[in-house]
């Protein structure tokens, strides 16, 4: 058993050219080529594409869809006991194969094992167990009798049931391939849905292992993995689903939404955008209990730097830019700048491989040459002043975490989501200026996350009440994803819908209401039937016109 904290961890004992052959008791029984250089094969459109496993054929996609629809209609997925078992089987799949998943993600992304376990494997296992434990509470029939205001309706047995929507489709991205495919799946299973998981072809090693293991642990008649790229995803979107859960960018989200609209299929969209950080120049350092002796702004820089370097900034919640209201506090800029330099030095000590090395134990590569070129171009065009980082290596697809000061609003780094380890810092006059900057129509929609560093309740209140974002997080970055009790999701351009535990369950289920009207009320409601008369109007309609509307003013509201 290897130790993920060992300096020799990055799989020095793994032969990258070996063939690992899955057992042949499932339909994905094909060799997985664990090689940094994928082989080429012809797509169903005749074009050459990169792949590491066989893609699912169009005929098989149709067959899977039909089979899952049949399974759902049988209602085998509805009993809570069945759902709980499948959920815990998913947890067992991860626990019994965690090394293989970590190895696959290392091969796909060169992501440090620490990040894979901290941000993907462990959270999914924990949330699987919590989901199984809490599911019976979520699924309870809601008795609404005590909320009924009309006395004669209290005997009508008003109930609200949580019902599964049907057959779901999860389309996952490459950047956090495990949690962003399996967390939605948890919600689908919990709700009683059948589900197809379409992992990203870019994370091909992970996708191959997922396709191999899902049939071994989960009921194949209810849950399937479809492998493929654009053609296969397009085929999936031609079919009618009862819910689609997509994580990715807004361009593809529009395509998915348009396809879903043809069938009136509801969608959950977890997108991204430019997530800003607003730092109060008067942010003070707390008692750090001897861990370190950072100033307030240095601590803010350290926490922002952490959020930006995780997976080399290739995550939707990464801080995209920093706003520093410096009016009346000239030293704040200098202190924050030194904080970022210190964060860079402490993250990459001189006695360890640096961020440009493939053997770096703490830093990921850029996913491919296209993204590397895009980021390099943005960085080269920027007029900002680099205070740390700035170097890159095209051969290894690596870019150092780079922080730039003196960036202007029209800079190349401010035109869209950077989605990489590049962080521009802009000065503004006041917190009001920062708020106006964030909500300006020139920005790329509402941010997924707005980070605010401040000890001042009025400062925080001013930002919260005058901005719109999917989440607003105070005094740290990224770590909010570990909180199981709050929903995660965007608004507008950054997404729609919510996830994490119960919130994911609610995305894949719907509220089915019920009342049972007793026969004994027939004399009371006899006047509802035609022919309508003045007497029936006075009895059935006139009382509604006598409702008393409480007095209010714009400043006082309703006094209860």
TrEMBL record:
<keyword id="KW-0560">Oxidoreductase</keyword>
<dbReference type="InterPro" id="IPR016163">
    <property type="entry name" value="Ald_DH_C"/>
</dbReference>
<dbReference type="GO" id="GO:0004029">
    <property type="term" value="F:aldehyde dehydrogenase (NAD+) activity"/>
</dbReference>
<protein>
    <recommendedName>
        <fullName>Aldehyde dehydrogenase domain-containing protein</fullName>
    </recommendedName>
</protein>
<dbReference type="InterPro" id="IPR029510">
    <property type="entry name" value="Ald_DH_CS_GLU"/>
</dbReference>
<dbReference type="GO" id="GO:0005737">
    <property type="term" value="C:cytoplasm"/>
</dbReference>
<feature type="domain" description="Aldehyde dehydrogenase">
    <location>
        <begin position="56"/>
        <end position="512"/>
    </location>
</feature>
<dbReference type="GO" id="GO:0006081">
    <property type="term" value="P:aldehyde metabolic process"/>
</dbReference>
<dbReference type="InterPro" id="IPR015590">
    <property type="entry name" value="Aldehyde_DH_dom"/>
</dbReference>
<dbReference type="Pfam" id="PF00171">
    <property type="entry name" value="Aldedh"/>
</dbReference>
<dbReference type="InterPro" id="IPR016162">
    <property type="entry name" value="Ald_DH_N"/>
</dbReference>
<feature type="active site">
    <location>
        <position position="270"/>
    </location>
</feature>
<dbReference type="InterPro" id="IPR012394">
    <property type="entry name" value="Aldehyde_DH_NAD(P)"/>
</dbReference>
<comment type="similarity">
    <text>Belongs to the aldehyde dehydrogenase family.</text>
</comment>
<dbReference type="InterPro" id="IPR016161">
    <property type="entry name" value="Ald_DH/histidinol_DH"/>
</dbReference>
